[in-house]
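sry for the spam today, last one i promise. struct tokens for design, 188 residues
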């Protein structure tokens, strides 16, 4: 049985047995906050539990490394929508130690793409179209500096409300310990 079929079979029972009832909430975050964090599997349950958050408390946006690559991309748009449409009053950008984005080498990723069938012509077409693949695929060397960069991108965005605190933290993916990088309540 494929993973999709297993998921659909389980989902059918989940709905029939009304197991969803414990998760019913609204689209508005009860604690009026939005979190941008990494997509790392270790954070899926650990991050909310380490912050005493439950279903319905926050909006969570995920990207590789909790990085905002572009000021007008989907990540930034999600944060802005959370602020202006979904009543979030604070932004938390939370990276983690031992991140897979640390020291990512773009050439290695491009080689893996080629082994899966992406042609050199496609890669060259992307470059010709103005995509700097080396920059776009590059990771970071220091998670703390990466978090500072993302916090500054949000804080200095022309459409961001300057009264919204933007915090930066780094979590230990084993213990859940949070280290404060930037207290967004200061320097607003």
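last one done:
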């Amino acid at each position: 049985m494929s993973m999709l079929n297993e998921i659909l079979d389980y989902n059918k029972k989940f709905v029939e047995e009304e197991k969803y009832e414990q998760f019913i909430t609204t689209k508005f975050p009860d604690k009026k906050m939005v979190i941008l964090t990494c997509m790392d599997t270790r954070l899926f349950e650990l991050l909310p539990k380490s912050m005493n958050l439950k279903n319905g408390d926050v909006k969570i946006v995920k990207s590789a490394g909790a990085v905002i690559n572009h000021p007008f991309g989907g990540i930034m748009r999600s944060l802005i929508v959370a602020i202006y449409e979904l009543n979030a009053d604070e932004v938390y950008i939370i990276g983690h130690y031992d991140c897979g984005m640390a020291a990512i080498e773009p050439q290695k990723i491009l080689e893996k793409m080629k082994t899966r069938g992406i042609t050199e012509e496609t890669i060259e077409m992307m470059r010709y179209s103005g995509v700097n693949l080396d920059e776009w695929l590059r990771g970071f060397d220091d998670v703390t500096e990466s978090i500072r960069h993302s916090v500054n991108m949000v804080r200095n965005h022309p459409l961001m409300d300057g009264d919204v605190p933007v915090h930066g933290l780094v979590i230990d993916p084993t213990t859940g310990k949070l280290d404060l990088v930037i207290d967004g309540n200061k320097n607003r």
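The chain has a mean pLDDT of 95. ok im logging off now
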